[in-house]
Design brief:
This is Molybdate transport system ATP-binding protein. By secondary structure, the protein is an alpha/beta fold. Helix content is 32%, strand content 26%. Strand 8 (155-159), helix 6 and strand 9 form a beta-alpha-beta unit. It starts with a strand and ends in a 5-residue tail after the last strand. The relative contact order is 0.21. Bound molecules: adenosine-5'-triphosphate.
């Protein structure tokens, strides 16, 4: 049986170069490291948004990239949900339509996450008719997480999902993130600088040291 996360890639972006090796059976992996260590770049490489120079990326037994085998699945075929620091909702669409946007990517997939279940899990039923511009930062992040789940992903990547919130809003959002972690059963990579957050979200931590140039 292969590891949940089986990654060995060399990343390059401008002058930035780094090798990342991860072999882990943890379902939820936290990724820490100083600014510029390459955390976002690694997530983008996994999601198919940044092409590694060489190497291999496999998650839960599925090979997403393998330079030797000439495998490089396009982003939309990787089935990855991505949650960013800022929610990146569509401002012209109501919450319900933003959630529906996630589902557009899942037409050919057996739904694992049902609309009503996701809405209940994230407590966003009262927000469905609202315009996204009026949401608080924490509410917007819950909608963004819902949108990611409704794309029926096989893997969830969270890139500092609490970083743009104040401390009180962070405390409000953490239980929702923990519910998503526990109820979805999805493999997850959770990027954060904050030790306490990492401890509460993941049992295995991968620390990227400062990148060598
Ligand atoms: N579009 C780009 N073109 C050139 N270099 C880039 C680009 N995006 C990022 N970099 C560089 O790649 C390196 C890694 O950046 P990355 O965003 O992956 O780090 P990070 O660990 O996520 O940092 P942070 O915690 O600040 O978000 C940095 O040196 C950054 O300056």
């Amino acid at each position: 049986m292969s590891a949940v996360f089986d990654i060995d890639v060399s990343l390059a972006r401008g002058d930035f170069r780094r090798q990342v090796q991860v072999q882990s059976d943890a379902r939820v992996l936290a990724l820490t490291g100083v600014s510029g260590a390459g955390k976002t770049s690694l997530l983008q490489a996994i999601a198919g948004l940044l092409r590694p120079r060489a190497g291999r990326i496999a998650v839960a037994g599925r090979t997403l990239f393998d330079s030797a085998e000439r495998i490089d699945l396009p982003a939309h075929r990787r089935h990855i949900g991505f949650v960013f620091q800022d929610a990146r909702l569509f401002p012209h669409l109501a919450v319900r339509a933003n959630l529906g946007y996630g589902a557009r990517f899942a037409k050919d997939r057996t739904p694992r996450f049902a609309f009503d279940d996701v809405v209940a899990l994230l407590g966003i039923a009262p927000l469905l008719a609202r315009r996204t511009v009026n949401l608080s930062g924490g509410e917007a992040q819950r909608v963004a997480i819902g949108r990611a789940l409704l794309s029926q992903p096989d893997l969830l990547l969270l890139d500092e999902p609490l970083a743009s919130l104040d401390q009180a809003r962070r405390e409000e959002l953490i239980p929702y993130l923990q519910r998503v972690r526990d109820d979805s059963g999805l493999p997850m990579i959770y990027v954060s600088h904050v030790a306490d957050e990492v401890r509460r979200m993941a049992d295995t931590v991968l620390a990227l040291d400062a990148a060598l140039r």
